[in-house]
Amino acid sequence: MVVTLDAELLDIALRSLRVTLTALVIACAIALPLAAMLAVRRYRWRRATIAVLNALMGLPPVVVGLIVYILLSRSGPLGALGLLFTPTAMIIAQVIIIVPLIASIAHQSLRDLWAEYHDLLISMNVTQSQKVRTLLWDARRALLTAALAGFGRGIGEVGAIMIVGGNIDNVTRVLTTAIALETGKGQFALALALGFILIALAISVNLIIHWMGQTEQESRW
Length: 221
Fold this sequence. Notes:
- With 221 residues, the chain is mainly alpha-helical.
- It contains nine helices and no strands.
- The chain is globular, with a radius of gyration of 20 Å.
């Protein structure tokens, strides 16, 4: 099925990539500037904010799914939008899950870079936004690593996605939910094919992260 590019298999894989990549772009747009601001700015509750951000990395996905479900259900505050059991609901859940992860990893890299750039940027009397842009640009390789880590977390998510997406065929069925369904039905050929694709994606992400880490170390030398 993998070699012949089975139509159902390809449809599920492409839907998974579309949902996760969309969530990743949105999450990066939120998490990276947040991480840079936490590295640059000094305010009273900064340490508490960082601690909460790190704690949210371990937020149970099923809890996120439950919260999003309540918000998007007909009786919820956003029920009128009709987003429940749609790819949009799945994207929202994935964004909430991966933003703390990306922000936390990015903050560690940006904090170290800010320690090197602090005196120079302060002496140049640049604005906060210029400081943030400088850090984000110069740390782009490390930030890409953070983004790839977020992608790995999102593509393998099943609990929250199952709750808010409903695993509807040709609508919200993705790799992880399809594997769970097909295994329960005893359709092990399709489940294994989906599993191979998911493993291949996970390994590819880890190899890219490792390669980028090696490249970053070599560039510093």
